[in-house]
Design goal:
Blueprint lengths: L1 H71 L8 E12 L9 E11 L2 E8 L2 E11 L2 E6 L8 E11 L2 E10 L6 E11 L7
Antiparallel strand pairs: 1-2, 1-8, 2-3, 3-4, 4-5, 5-6, 6-7, 7-8
């Protein structure tokens, strides 16, 4: 009878143990299934991300090719418009013009009779004018006589970086005879209203 009581007492424990084991196995299967779904979803998202990256890269390459074609066929008329200009004074041996100063101007470029004409204004006041040409994606300008440069000259060389920006240098010679001094600037021109690239 003792044995029978032991067996009767052991049966519910064994049943509970088997039941717990069955529940654990079921939960493990559910967790494994959820993990599998998460992995599939993650792979799907990675695939979509890679596809988007490929599309973005293709669009950028297309823009670069189009920009190269435009740059290879750039004409002086393509430069017409208002440009915001920043000049940083690099060196100067002229009194009153210390190196390190930064000047902001607005330049209005126009194309008249095969020449580039530039009207320069500083805070709305016309201060200078240039005349020059555009060849091989380089803008070369020389100042025309104004009150500011009654006894001197200014020359500008700017290379086209893209349809909306040029960079280069400006050299200004002031004075005359043996009292000529020189000022060198780095120059950045940004189109006031940028061309939109497609």
């Amino acid at each position: 009878m003792k044995t029978f009581a032991c067996i009767l007492f052991s049966l519910p424990i064994a049943f509970l143990w088997l039941s717990c084991d069955s529940t654990n196995t079921q939960k493990e299967a559910e967790i494994a299934q959820k993990e599998q779904k998460l992995l599939e979803r993650e792979n799907e998202l990675l695939k979509k991300e890679n596809e988007q990256l490929k599309r973005d890269t293709a669009v950028k390459e297309q823009r670069k090719r189009k920009n190269r074609v435009i740059m290879d066929n750039l004409q002086p008329q393509d430069l017409v418009g208002t440009w915001n200009v920043t000049m940083s004074r690099l060196t100067s041996d002229c009194s009153g013009y210390p190196a390190g100063d930064v000047i902001a101007e607005d330049w209005v470029l126009d194309f008249v009779e095969d020449k580039i004409i530039v009207k320069v204004s500083n805070s709305g006041t016309n201060v200078l004018a240039y005349k020059g040409e555009f060849q091989n994606n380089t803008l070369t300008l020389k100042s025309t006589r104004t009150a500011l440069l009654a006894s001197g000259t200014a020359t500008v060389k700017a290379n086209i970086k893209d349809l909306n920006q040029m960079t280069g240098s400006r050299e200004m010679l002031k004075g005359s005879g043996s009292s000529i001094c020189k000022i060198d600037y780095s120059i950045v021109l940004n189109r006031a209203t940028p061309h939109v690239e497609f």
